[in-house]
Amino acid sequence: MFRVKICGVTTPDDALFVAEAGADAVGLNFVAGSPRRLAPDAAARVARDLPPAVRRVGVFAGATVEKMLEVAALVGLDAIQLHGHLSPA
After folding, report:
1. Residue 11, by phi and psi: left (phi above 0), alpha (psi -120 to 50) or beta?
2. Which residue pairs, CB below 8 angstroms and at least 24 apart, start in 17-22?
3. What is the predicted pLDDT for the residue at 4?
4. What's phi and psi for 55, nearest 5 deg?
5. Cα(24)–Cα(4) distance, rounded to whole angstroms?
6. pLDDT-derived band of residue 22, with 50, 70 and 90 as boundaries?
7. pTM exceeds 0.85
8. CB neighbours of 2 closer than 8 A, spacing ≥ 6?
9. Which of helix, strand or coil describes residue 50?
């Protein structure tokens, strides 16, 4: 069995479209410099109307743990995905 996450979703309508198409998760991008980056309040609007079974995944790069947890709480994220090269620190 596999699961499908559609990343880079930027509008509530697109989020509902991918949910209705059968996606298991919607990826919300918080990576600085990305053309699909969302502000936390915009991401909360995208995530708000998703069906409960569709996971809300925040994609982060270079953010502190505190910032990721703050955004996760504000948006209602179910999971956090780390992107890029990570050091052990």
Report:
1. beta
2. 19/50, 19/51, 19/54
3. 94
4. -75, 145
5. 5
6. very high
7. yes
8. none
9. coil
- In angstroms, the CA 27 to CA 81 distance is 9
Burial of 89 (0-12, 13-18, 19+ CB in 10 A): exposed
**Residue whose entry in the numeric block shows the structure tokens 């596999």:** 2
Q: Could you tell me the pLDDT band of residue 86, with boundaries at 50, 70 and 90?
A: low
Place of tokens 């703050």: 70
Separation of CA 3 from chain center: 15
Cα torsion 52, 11, 68, 32 to 10°: value is 160
CA-CA distance, 60 to 19, in Å (whole number)?
22
